[in-house]
Amino acid sequence: MRSHPLKQTPPQRRRAFSLLEMLLALAILGSSLAILAQIAGTGVSAAREARALATARMICQTKLSELLLNMQAGQTPTTIIEAPAESFDSASTETYVYSVEILPGQLDGLLSLRVSVIARAGDGSEQLAAFALDRWVIDPALGLEEAEAEEEALREEIASGGEEPVA
């Protein structure tokens, strides 16, 4: 029997990858690894900034509470330009600096207190986070607390049967 002239022989099967296919696969793998490394680095940086912001927030709240307690004890608040603050985490490498700003409020008799905290990298080169809290309080220099105490004493005297003062 004779073979047909148009009939082709079956193609031979390849037994390995070509060099071009290997280089293409390695290029795809390398670029994927580079992208994953960049994403991981961004995640670590974001986690570090979030931890610094949370710590700055706690320091800010603590300093504002101390300031308000001191005001209740009769101390007049003072402006603090920059002072170091200790982190709550002893293993923290960040440095924290806080400042207190005392300004007149928008209404007479009020003070605006602003406590700000800045978190910097351990070497101080980069600012990681900043947080500030504002609080309006009655100006202790007005003496409103004493006036309220006198008014309360007068009300107690009237309630206990004392004579009403003539106005």
Strand and helix map with partners:
Blueprint: H1 19-72, E1 80-85, E2 95-104, E3 110-120, E4 127-138, H2 144-159
Antiparallel strand pairs: 1-2, 2-3, 3-4
What topology, given as strand order, has the largest sheet? 1-2-3-4
User: How many beta strands in the DSSP annotation?
Assistant: 4
Helix content: 40-55%
Quote the average pLDDT. 84
End-to-end span in angstroms?
Answer: 138 Å
Query: Low-confidence stretches at least 5 residues in length (pLDDT < 50)?
Result: none
The secondary-structure element order is HEEEEH
What is the rounded Rg? 36 Å
Please indicate the percent range of residues in DSSP E strands (runs of 2 or more).
Answer: 15-25%
Structural class call reads alpha+beta
The largest β sheet comes out as: 4 strands, antiparallel
Counting structural domains, the number is 1
Count of helix runs: 2
Globally, the shape reads rod-shaped
